[in-house]
Every structure is written in structure tokens, then in C-alpha cells.
Amino acid sequence: MSDLLLTGEVRDGLGHTLHWISTAIEILGVAVILLGVLLSTIWMARDLASGGWTRAYRSYRANLGRGILLGLEFFIAADIIGMVAIVPTFERLGILAVIIIIRTLLSFSLQIEVDGRLPWRRKEEGKSQSEGL
Hints:
mainly alpha
């Protein structure tokens, strides 16, 4: 069985399969972002009709940010799977690390933008609100 796993044909087949899976996840990430843009725009139009510009704008930014965040998570997953599909070298691993760091920092800054506070402040605010009851 281990001889079968080490053959070049099986290894190439697995590499191609992982490449296609990675590509499918990237396409899914793009679709999630596009769907987020579409739904955010629809919800903004609804908010404009029922409320004011400020409320609609804040809601639009928050919903748009959530869609982008979710899409970025798919891109990071695709990058990791794509790295497994090719022969991992230290150079490619370094490039992957840089890509993941950049996307993680982008996700972090978008999360702050969406929530309007640092992620660790959520727990503090929730704790102080529950203590005040």
C-alpha cells in the first residue's frame, strides 16, 4: 500500500486534485464577496427607504465588511491547500506566511472597522454590562 502512495502518478493526481479544490475555494471566496456586495447594497437601499442616510451608511459598511471578511477566510484556506498541492519549499512557505499575515492583518483591521472596537474589548464590554445588571 505504501508503494502505491509513493508513485508519481498518484502523487500527480493528488496534486491536481488539491489544485482544483484550492481553485474551487478561491472561486467560492470571490462569490461570497460578490454576494456580500449585492446583499449589502440591497439592504442599504432598504435602509435608505425606511431610515436616514447615516444609519444606512453605517449598516452598509458593516455588512460589506462582513462579506469581505468571510471571503478573505476562504482565500486563506485556498492558499493553505494550494501550498500542500505543490512541492513545499522554504521559499514558497515563506511567501505563504507573508500572504497569510497580510490577509490576517487585513481581516483584523476590517473586523475593527465593522465592530467599531478592538476584538478583546467585546469581552470587557460584555462583562461590564453583565456586572451592571
